[in-house]
Amino acid sequence: MAGNLFRSEEMSLVQLYIPLEIAQPTVSELGELGHVEFRDLNPNVNAFQRAFVNEIRRLDEMERKLRFLEGQIHKAEVPVRSMDSSLYYGRSRTQQEIDELEERLNDHDARVQQMNTSLETLNKRYLELTELRHVLRETAIFFDEANTRTDDILGGTHREDTHLLAPGGTLEQPDDNEAVERGEGALRSANLGFVAGVIPRGRMGTFERILFRALRGNLYMNYAEIDEPIVDPITDEVVQKNVFIIFAHGAQLLAKIKKICESMGATVYPVDERSEKRRNDAQEVLGRLEDLKHVLDSTRNQRRIELAKVAENLESWSTVVKKEKAIYHTMNQFNYDQNRKALIAEGWCPTLSINAIQYALRGVTERTGATVPPILNEMRTVLEPPTFHRTNKFTVGFQEIVDAYGVAAYREVNPGLFTVITFPFLFAVMFGDFGHGIFVTAFATWMVSQEKKLEKKRWGEIWSTFFGGRYIILLMGIFSIYTGLIYNDIFSKAMNLFGSGWEFHKHGEKWYGEKKWTYVFGVDPAWHGSDNVLLFTNSYKMKMAIIFGVMHMSFGICLNVCNFIYFNKRLNIYTDFLPQIIFLLSIFGYLVILIIYKWATYWPDASLAPGLLNTLIYMFLSPGNIGQKDLLYKGQAGLQGFLLFVAFVCVPWMLFAKPYFLKKEHEKRGGLGYAGLSDENLNDPTAAGFTSGPGDNRPSEDGASSGAGHVEVASSGHEHFDFGEIMIHQMIHTIEFCLGAISNTASYLRLWALSLAHAQLSEVLWTMIMGNVLLMEGAVLPIALVCGFAMWFVLTVGILLVMEGLSAFLHALRLHWVEFQNKFYAGSGQKFQPFAFQTILADTEE
Amino acid sequence: MAGVAILVTFILFALAGGTAFWFIPKSQDQILYRTALSLTLVCTWTMWAVTYLAQMNPLIVPERSFGHNPTGGHSNL
């Protein structure tokens, strides 16, 4: 039966002979199909020695280029056309197409790289020119200022100097110089040199200090801030910079300053001493900047066009490359038959899918026109197959809950099937509130109805958790509505739908109910608002928790029978199942019956009704005796003594029966001489592994290696009889079960505790906020009503729905994982992970 | 006796469940639907029955310090 959650699917180990020339399209087709999990036939070969390393390296290189281009596109903010990648399913690429793709990628990559480098140099040039422009402008201002000042300072000595020095010819100073030139001339005459440049503003202080110390103060420095921010072409960071100019005395000092500038990361620009030249330079710089800007713009545009071209195909290309890479990784797991130029693959597939696989293989043969088709044959094996549950969008969430605890062993009874209902129901027992249930259901209904649209949304991890569990939440909500109706809680208020069964009469200070009839559906609304409501709900919910717990656990124990019959371990029914179920039912099953009996009995004097807790305790403390006060029915003492006796008998039954029968069976087999034979088989690799189909004469080399793999597993499966070990195992199992039966039953009391907490919290929230608001009068009321309601609503959603919901979810999870599943579930299987492009692409997307 | 209601609803649930059980079409998910149906009926009926039973022969009566009658009819004062 397909799609049956009760047991995992039957799996087959298949062997595929794939002619080398059609290996790639074949594997690609199987990847599209996604029904085969290939086994690694070369576990001892390391990744670098495998057959298709070169192809993978090539694809890695292509992937790297794609990533580079993607990064560039992202940086340039070119919109990427997102495709429905399913368009690219069902289309395998030929070798030629891959070669073409590689060439195109290389082309694009090289072009983008080249444009990047030229852009970088252009940018650098642009930066330099911009800085130079600033330097020129700022220094011009310095010089203009200096001009007027040097006139004052040097005015007196100037003529003298020239007068004195002129004959020596050290300085040329034409007499007919312009007035502006005089300042600089003065500088020159004072043997002052200067250095001008640009430095990041942050380093200015340090720079100044270092200069001051290095030159012992023999400098004059001036600086100005550049008001426009400058972008560093390499790091793309915006830097604030200053223009500086330093005047110092003598060539040595100037050289020193230049060195310091270099080490501080400042850029020095040559500035001419003559103002005429400076003006010309400034003009030229402006002109060049303009030109450069044009070039830059056109290069940027070209790059954008190129990237846009790439962006159009980027997604489909990377899909192709990822697929190809996966194909070669898979082919690396195959054996290579050199004589026949064929690859030999082994893998697991669902037995039901073999036909689909055969069909796909035939399709490949037809399409490629190969002379030799790939051959599939099924092998018999002693290996434990992987576990595969065919889930749909509804069941997958529930199956994941179970798988999170442990993947079922092959063909084991799968608790996932029952979890579909029991999980949301136990959740709802703890979360029972009609109003909250409606909210949860509405939220889940929205997610389910919009699932096509919401599937594509990437709203973070929390959202995808909720969205992945939308069907679980839907069922949780629906069951919460039901349990809310039963508890008669709607946002902690009650509804009187069928007419309360209680009529109230006043006796003294208080009003007391008088029962007329039993409320038909759920808890009578009369209890809401009564002073002793907790006395009633505690007793009722506690007992209900025990009843559901015993039912749930007994159900788990009964599921053992399905496993024992299926795996042909009928002995275990008598040695494990029977004592377990009798033990549980004779103590806690009896407790459930007592609960129901007490409820169903009419007690004229309520104070004489015996407490069940005492009954249970005294059943253990003084078996066979019962006080007159505690008597529920005639013959109770005898029955209780008998049940206790039965429960005690079950313990040694569980403990000794199975080891005893196993030992007897082993001795019988040993007497017939089979034991020795199976031991010998173990040393023969071909016999212990598997018998494969006809035509299996593989070369000895790979035969030995894969055979060795089989032996390893086969020997662990071989039954080595050790009585002591079995005894110890059985002892642990027995102790665990007996103690577990008690502690697990107590553990179900969390159903009561959580539902009590939920009801109390919602009641507190209502009385503290809405209760107080409704007491107000006059003009304040409308405002208080709006504010109070908003607050109440937010807290209801935040605390009662989200937080309480999570806590109830976790407790339901625990009840399933521990209390239910440990009764029958081994969870020791390996999950079936087929080679499928869909999962590979989805994985890499994240 | 009031306990009759429990029996009657049990029979009704069993009948309804049984009919639905056999009418679930044969498909891939037949087992899933049948299991879900049976478990839902068992859970919901048990919960209702437990609640009904618990109120059938009450050992305590509700006490109030105010005289509001939930039936909405006569308040006895």
TrEMBL record, chain A:
Gene3D superfamilies named in the record: 1.20.5.340
Name of this chain's protein: V-type proton ATPase subunit a
Entry GO CC: fungal-type vacuole membrane; vacuolar proton-transporting V-type ATPase, V0 domain
Sections of the chain in a coiled coil: 52-132
Any one GO molecular-function label of the UniProt entry: ATPase binding
Main subcellular location: membrane
Compartment(s): Membrane
Stretch list, region Disordered: 688-710
Transmembrane annotation, as ranges: 425-448, 469-487, 544-566, 578-600, 637-656, 791-813
GO biological process terms on file: vacuolar acidification
TrEMBL record, chain B:
Organism: Powellomyces hirtus
Family: Belongs to the V-ATPase e1/e2 subunit family.
Signal peptide (residue range): none
Protein name: V-type proton ATPase subunit
Lineage: Eukaryota, Fungi, Fungi incertae sedis, Chytridiomycota, Chytridiomycota incertae sedis
Gene Ontology cellular-component terms listed: endomembrane system; proton-transporting V-type ATPase, V0 domain
Alphabetic keyword roster: Hydrogen ion transport, Ion transport, Membrane, Transmembrane, Transmembrane helix, Transport
PANTHER family, per database record: V-TYPE PROTON ATPASE SUBUNIT, VACUOLAR ATP SYNTHASE SUBUNIT H
Subcellular location: Endomembrane system
Transmembrane region(s): 36-54
Keyword field contains Membrane: yes
